[in-house]
Amino acid sequence: MNQIRYILFFLATTALFSQSSNLLHINQHTFTLIQEDYDEYDSKGKTITFYRNGDNNQKTSLFSFILEDVTGGCNDKSVEKGVYEVNGKTLTFYTLWKRVGSIEDAPFGGQIKRYTLLKNGEFKLISSHLYIEEHTEDSNLESGMKFLFKEPKTKEEKKLFKKYVTSVERRYGGKFVFNQESSKLIKEVREAIKREVKNVWKKR
What is the pTM of this model? Predict the structure, then answer.
């Protein structure tokens, strides 16, 4: 009986995935980009995976990137939007997180990751900057995130703030930026998303 349930679950899950692919040429290197759509539990969206094409049609997986993720109900949900751009040998990933409705335990912010293409066809990470509020300001008063909005004064407050920043940097992989730098980062991410929307409309 358990085996039958597992098979039914497997079929139901895999049926929710769809896949498409295209090629990306940078200098003399060719990459296969495979996009997958998913819809499971309370999350749905799409990811893209970059593969380096080698000899004998061999493909090496380089990294995956979330293009879109929506988690939650109709009114209260967490939204993640991502786009990428190629400029010469530089590959840049832009990610924006936002909250819709009254959801509290969801991230808001942005991240920019830049890679450069090496001669051997591999990508090297050259920078990763981010600003992320992991929840709303008043939803978790014990979190060091509150010191993004007011300066920590005591030794304990500074320690708590550092713990929050270090945790986010480790989880998302990047250097936390503050104040004007964070506003500039969010603006740059939004502009990249707008450019992508315009490009999509031009292709139609």
Answer: 0.87
